[in-house]
Amino acid sequence: MTDSPALDPPPSATVILSLRNVGASADQLAERLRRLSRVEGVDVLVVDDGSTDGSADRLGERIGEADGIAYVRHSDNAGVAARRNEALARATGEFIWFVDHDDDWTESGLAALRGHAEGVDLVVGRADFQWGQDAHERRRIDGAEVGAPQDIDAPAAAVLLLDGTIHGFLWSKLFRRTSLGVDPFPLIVSQSDIVGVARAIARSRRARLIPETVYTYIRLPGSITRKRKPDLRALERAHDDVLALLNDAATPSLRDLFTARFLCLAAVKTAVRWNADRAAIDEALLLACRHARGLSIPSIARRSLGIAAAVTLLRTVPALLPVALRSALAVLDLGRRVRRPSHREEPDA
């Protein structure tokens, strides 16, 4: 592994933002986009996916004729994956950064990513998750624990994605445009991000892990619903696509770990965390049990005792897994309210 100095000047980058119904945040968003567009070597591509709240007009007025910002508007709603594919086909920057309108990101995050892009196809930064205003209501959700930039080859990056060291979020990563190819995001309602990340890794030669936090995913009261049924078909499709794309790096033990973590546990945990109804939780349990049957518990246990315990429950007393997850999440939430700020992730089980 090698350390890499920052570039001067850094490579060109296109910032891609697919949005819909941004509401009152249109003014603030326009200002952020204008600041980005004034950075040398950066252009911005915004695609409105059929907004119906009047924000498309307001955003267009605030952006105006700003140099370096292309604003594409649609009357229909095709979904974020389709709009990102469309934007990618229009992009001209050597690298691509994807952002969402309601999160915390600035030109400094992009500068950190661009500054480490020389000689690699993928730069992986760190990202935080913030769900309230207090300091303890924040945790690390992506990024490897490195003290200095480290270079790895594509197979090593594939392992990190499969074992959960890095996650499938787009916005904590800078992609060489050619590594994404054409239409990297499948047209599914969720989980298309991780498929795009896997596709980029499969088409890359080298990646660079950096210690900087470049993005904060925001969930504030009212920003998302607390009752959400997981889309199990999208989850299965993404699972299958990722394993197919990273087949060369996916050893049997890694496949088992990825299936247990990303598919079995995530299906049930999402339903429990967001207070889905009983039918949705039962449906998630059925899917998880079906996929858990062929998994090797000993091989999973060598990598994660918590995930192995969850698979054991799925194989023996599946009805206990939602109970165990509720208890674990309640303890976790209580601990966050009383302890000092931490960047630890939620446990997998």
What CATH architecture of the largest domain do you see?
A: Alpha-Beta Complex
User: Could you say which overall geometry the principal axes of the C-alpha atoms support?
Assistant: globular
Please name the CATH topology of the largest domain.
Spore Coat Polysaccharide Biosynthesis Protein SpsA, Chain A
- What's the number of structural domains? 2
The tally of helices reads 13
**Rg on CA atoms, Å:** 20 Å
What is the CATH class designation of the largest domain? Answer: Alpha Beta
Q: What percent of residues adopt helix (DSSP H or I)?
A: 40-55%
Element-by-element helix/strand order: EHEHEHEHEEEHEHHEHHHHHH
What's the number of extended β-strand segments?
9
How would you name the oligomeric state of the polypeptide chains in this document? single chain
Distance between the termini: 32 Å
Assigned CATH superfamily of the largest domain: Spore Coat Polysaccharide Biosynthesis Protein SpsA, Chain A
Largest sheet, in brief, is: 9 strands, mixed
